[in-house]
Amino acid sequence: MSNTESPNLKVKSILVSQPRPESDKSPYFELAKKYNIKIDFRPFIKVEGVAARDFRKDKINIAEYTAILFNSRNAIDHFFRMCEEMRIEMPIDTKYFCISENIGVYVQKYIQMRKRKVFFGDGKMEDLLPYMVKHKAEKFLMPCSDVMKGGFVAEASKIGIEIKQGVMFKTVSSDLSDLADIKYDMLAFFSPSGIKSLFENFPDFSQDNTRIAGFGSQTHAAILEHDLRLDIPAPTPESPSMTMAIEAYIKKVNK
Known about the structure:
The protein has 255 residues and is of the alpha/beta class. The protein has two domains: 13-44 and 175-253, Rossmann fold (3-Layer(aba) Sandwich), CATH 3.40.50; 48-171, Rossmann fold (3-Layer(aba) Sandwich), CATH 3.40.50.10090. Helix content is 30%, strand content 21%. It has helices at 27-35, 52-55, 73-85, 101-106, 129-133, 151-158, 192-201, 217-225, 242-253, and strands spanning 13-16, 38-41, 45-49, 67-70, 95-98, 117-120, 140-145, 163-173, 186-189, 211-215, 232-234. Strands 3-8-7-4-5-6 form a six-stranded mixed sheet. Strands 2-1-9-10-11 form a five-stranded parallel sheet, sandwiched between helices. Helix 7 runs parallel beside helix 8. The longest helix has 13 residues, at 73-85.
């Protein structure tokens, strides 16, 4: 955490660098109402699909793979988009390994579950390793973005499971030029890509009294690498969610 002390000033406005929640019951809306603060939402990054012609340059033959690993809805959408563009129909006995049940259910958008073998984790890719060990003979492909880290792939390799990562979509910075003259008391970030977008849009950004909240160790590292002050780190044992961490901070300064 930065050695610079966080200013003890009230928070009246927050910009969350994610899309506006679809549910009216989001804890962000409850937070805004409870403390009478303005909370806006704006994605700092967006996802773009890799064109089939560019994917072919990686010389990955999707049809050769018998098991597909999914860690997000984006991965599912772009995998099946790529299959369609390349006119590939996955065999009925293809196995799908999904990071969570929600992601597994989302696969139903593209396949009939009753005819497929789908395995669910509990929110972490590592949860899938016991299932994968039982299916070591399969050939694993993991559709991913250009910023995907290789930690899980390395863990799988240690137990003799080889996973091929196929970049089928990429994360790019959103155009935030319309925010140039708008100031917020707090900015909330959830990925290193969000920090990258901030400086691509505003190279001369100076934090000053703006409080910065960051979720996840990689986001924390990116904040500090850009010489910014990390005022609200999350998750923590006391505040496992971003909204809980923000509320704990607001309770201290909005007295």
